[in-house]
Structure formats: structure tokens, C-alpha cells
């Protein structure tokens, strides 16, 4: 038990140290990624979807941006977690809202708790997913009317936009590499070397 506590303390100190180092280049790329990721979603909502009164920009995307642009090495920021966490949580949120629509003191905790368990079970834990589930049960107006379409738009479509921007901005410099999953990076390198040979 003591070994585990000491190891956890050492790892925590290292992570805090690494995360608090001031690296202006890293901050610059994090800023650009977040600006363009959220900006693109906001642009689509304000210019393309205004007449349809659709909601394309949800609050949990802001929290996802912190992870996928600012903490790109985190296991919680990887593409599987980003998309899987949001989509599964959206499904849970809509389902809970359909079963318990008017009892917010019951539907809100059920949606968040079930979404956490489902993300843990599927290894897609992404903290903003809890907010996505909560938005589905606590919002008024357009979101409850969307039903399961909420899962497709804004959740899945928004996640794809954020991911594409993250893949671009997080791989522009040799110091940043996203995602950290080895299989994905090997596949990208393999395709790149195959094109270079041609």
C-alpha cells in the first residue's frame, strides 16, 4: 500500500510539474487549435443553422477543447475518448430524458452517473461527456425536441470537427504528436512513407 501511495505521489508531482511548465510555443498551438475548433462550430451555427434554430455549439465542447488542444498527451484526450465519450453520453442523456422527462432531481444524476459507468466500461472516459449527458436532460427548448438527433448533431458532428482540427494543429510541429496511440501514428507514418516512395 505504501509503495502504491509513494508511486502515485511521484507520478502526480511529475504530471503537475510538466503541466505547469511555461512553453509559449505549446500555448500558441493550443490557442490556435481551440480558436479554430470552436470557431468553426460557432461559425456553422451562426451562419448555416440560424434559421433552423438548431443548436450546434454546446458547452461541453469547450471542456473537450481544453483536453484535445491543451493536454494532448492525456489518455482522456485521445480520439476514441473524445468521440466515444460524447456519443455514448449523449445516448444516455437522451434515453434518461425520455424515461424521466420532468423530474430533474432524478434525471440529471441518472444521466451523468450512467454516462460515467458506460464510458468506464467501454474505455472511452472523457470528462466533458458527463456535461453532454447533463445538457440532454437539463436543457429547455430545442435540445429536448431533437431527441436522438442530438447524438448526431450537434454531438457527433461537433466532435468530428474538433477532432479534425486537433489532428491538423496538434501535428504541425515535431514537438506535438496527436493522437498518442501507437497504432494510429504507425498507420499515418506508413501512408506518408508510401507516398514519398511514389
TrEMBL record:
Domain of life, per UniProt, equals: Bacteria
Query: What InterPro entries does the entry give?
Result: HPP, TM_HPP
HPP transmembrane region domain residues are 22-179
Q: Which residues cross the membrane?
A: 28-49, 55-72, 148-169
Pfam families per the UniProt record, alphabetical: TM_HPP
What are the entry keywords?
Membrane, Transmembrane, Transmembrane helix
| Name of the protein described by the UniProt record | HPP family protein
Question: Which source organism?
Answer: Chryseobacterium polytrichastri
Amino acid at each position: 500500500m505504501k509503495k502504491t501511495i509513494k508511486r502515485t505521489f511521484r507520478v502526480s508531482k511529475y504530471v503537475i510539474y510538466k503541466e505547469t511548465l511555461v512553453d509559449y510555443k505549446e500555448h500558441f498551438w493550443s490557442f490556435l487549435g481551440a480558436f479554430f475548433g470552436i470557431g468553426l462550430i460557432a461559425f456553422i451555427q451562426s451562419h448555416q443553422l440560424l434559421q433552423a434554430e438548431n443548436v450546434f455549439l454546446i458547452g461541453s465542447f469547450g471542456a473537450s477543447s481544453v483536453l484535445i488542444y491543451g493536454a494532448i498527451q492525456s489518455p482522456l484526450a485521445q480520439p476514441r475518448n473524445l468521440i466515444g465519450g460524447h456519443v455514448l453520453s449523449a445516448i444516455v442523456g437522451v434515453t434518461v430524458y425520455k424515461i424521466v422527462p420532468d423530474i430533474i432531481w432524478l434525471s440529471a444524476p441518472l444521466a451523468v452517473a450512467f454516462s460515467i459507468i458506460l464510458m468506464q466500461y467501454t474505455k472511452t472516459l472523457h470528462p466533458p461527456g458527463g456535461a453532454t449527458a447533463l445538457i440532454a436532460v437539463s436543457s429547455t427548448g430545442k435540445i429536448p425536441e431533437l431527441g436522438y438527433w442530438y447524438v448526431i448533431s450537434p454531438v457527433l458532428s461537433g466532435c468530428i470537427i474538433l477532432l479534425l482540427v486537433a489532428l491538423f494543429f496538434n501535428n504541425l510541429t515535431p514537438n506535438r504528436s496527436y493522437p498518442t496511440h501507437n497504432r494510429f501514428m504507425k498507420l499515418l507514418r506508413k501512408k506518408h512513407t508510401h507516398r514519398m516512395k511514389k
